[in-house]
Design a protein that fits this description.
A ten-stranded mixed sheet has the order 7-6-5-4-3-2-1-8-9-10. The chain is of the alpha/beta class. Mean pLDDT is about 95; it is low at about 1-10. It has helices spanning about 30-35, 70-85, 100-110, 125-135, 150-155, 160-175, 195-200, 220, 230-250, 265-270, 305, 315-325, 325-330, 335-340, 340-345, 350-355, 360-365, 375-385, 415-425; strands at about 40-45, 90, 115-120, 140-145, 180-185, 205-210, 250-255, 285-290, 295, 310, 385-395, 405-410. The protein is globular, with a radius of gyration of 21 Å. The longest helix has 17 residues, at about 230-250.
Length: about 425
């Protein structure tokens, strides 16, 4: 029996993004580490316009930004990405195909020898658009599947969106475009991952990216969508079980940066990745994020207010990359260690993990350096009969890439729940009681 709170059924209000901030300061000189560090991967929000208004959207996508890059500006940015050393560009939205020149951007990216992929909600990826993607040179499209049909449709506020997403994958596969899937794991879909796996395997998905839903944007409006940190006790073993099945089916599982952290399944989940289980934040080190008005961040998901370092309308991409403090915060491990607090500040794995995903922590607390969504941490607390849960104490303002504020409560497990949690951790049961 699922006792999770009901997902909100009304469509969220779609805000208009504020105009870009002008003349953000850059450091006078780049340090040696800034000149040596180069992004190999860019994630580019080409428009904030979207044909869905999902309840778990961190960017509150829907309306185009009032000052999105022109085609000429976007093509110049492609040139600058290539010059900076970017090897792969993932186009995201909003919804990519709602920008009229999206295929022109793809062709420009491919002409520079960079790989080009797309992330899509899939509502309108028709056979015509699938053919256009193929002809332009798109190498892979990842379609968001966030639960079984009913859960997916309720999260996305549109009946039929689940069927449309799966049909989008078929349309793309029919044109010879590699298809993948991505799933945000939250409270409502955490026990439907097996169903999602079977659905994407049936449409020949090559890979599946899994990440945790983050308390940003519309999720902060409705925290019932969010996992509690102790839910990782059931989520990570389930992901590990699915990883074994996916390996047999030749479906590659990509764990998102905020999924896991030094629990017993890390080698299984990340053993084939370049940095193995070292899961610290890659923002501003090998990743660069671009908003559709040319604002540059170290990671596309980070809150705009705190992490935009400059704009390509005003400064060259290389100068923003090398000299904007908002992008350089991951390049000094000693400074990052000093910024750890709470459980992360005293953790055995602090030197390697460095607090994990900055977005996850900042969205909860307004500062990075303490990430309660950690499997190792949940297991250590369980050893002492303790757990953590989150309480929202401040609502978000309601603008793109915003967040509220949460309080972290550490408490004793209720006796009956504790016994069940220990069964789950020992592999004798699959699900917690709630």
């Amino acid at each position: 029996m699922n006792l999770a709170p009901a997902i909100r059924r009304s469509l969220p209000i779609v805000p208009t993004a504020a105009p870009l901030r002008r003349r953000l300061p850059l450091a006078g000189d780049a340090r040696a580490v800034d000149r040596q560090t180069r992004p190999i991967y860019a994630v580019w929000e080409v428009t904030l316009r979207c044909d869905l208004a999902c309840n778990h959207c961190s960017s509150r996508a829907g309306r185009a930004r009032p000052d999105e890059l022109t085609t000429a500006e976007a093509l110049r940015l492609v040139d600058e990405m290539a010059a900076l050393g970017v090897l792969e560009v993932t186009l995201i939205g909003g919804e990519v195909y709602l920008r009229d020149d999206w295929t022109d951007l793809v062709r420009a990216i491919r002409a520079h020898g960079m790989e080009c992929t797309i992330v899509s909600g899939g509502r309108g990826f028709t056979p015509v658009r699938a053919r256009a993607a193929k002809d332009a040179g798109v190498m892979s499209v990842s379609v968001s599947i966030d639960g079984a049909r009913e859960t997916h449709d309720r999260l996305r506020g549109l009946h039929g969106s689940h069927a449309a997403a799966l049909q989008a994958m078929r349309n793309l596969a029919d044109e010879g475009v590699q298809v993948s899937a991505n799933t945000q794991i939250g409270r409502h879909n955490r026990r439907e991952l097996g169903t999602v796996f079977e659905e994407i395997r049936a449409v020949d998905a090559a890979s599946w990216q899994l990440q945790l839903t983050v308390a940003a944007g519309r999720v902060a409006d409705d925290p019932s969508i969010l996992l509690e940190p102790y839910h990782l006790l059931e989520v990570l073993p389930e992901v590990a079980r699915l990883k074994a099945r996916a390996d047999l089916a030749d479906v590659r599982i990509w764990p998102g940066n905020n999924l896991g952290y030094y629990g017993p399944f890390e080698s299984q989940l990340r053993g084939s990745l370049p940095r193995k289980r070292k899961g610290s934040c890659g923002a501003g080190r090998f990743i660069v994020g671009v908003e559709s008005n040319g604002a540059i961040k170290g990671c596309p998901s980070l809150p705009s207010e705190a992490y935009v370092g400059g704009n390509v309308r005003e400064d060259r991409l290389v100068d923003i990359w090398e000299r904007a403090d908002a992008l350089r915060f991951t390049r000094d491990d000693d400074e990052r260690m000093r910024g750890l607090w709470g459980q992360c500040g005293t953790c055995y794995y602090a030197d390697d993990c460095l607090g994990g995903c900055s977005w996850t922590a900042h969205a909860l607390f307004g500062r990075r350096g303490n990430n309660p969504f950690c499997h190792h941490r949940a297991l250590e607390l369980l050893r002492h009969g303790r757990r953590e849960r989150l309480v929202r104490i401040e609502a978000p303002p309601g603008v793109p890439f915003d967040h509220g504020r949460f309080e972290l409560v550490e408490e004793d497990w209720p006796a009956l729940d504790l016994a069940r949690a220990r069964e789950v951790a020992a592999g004798k049961a699959s699900w917690l009681l709630d």
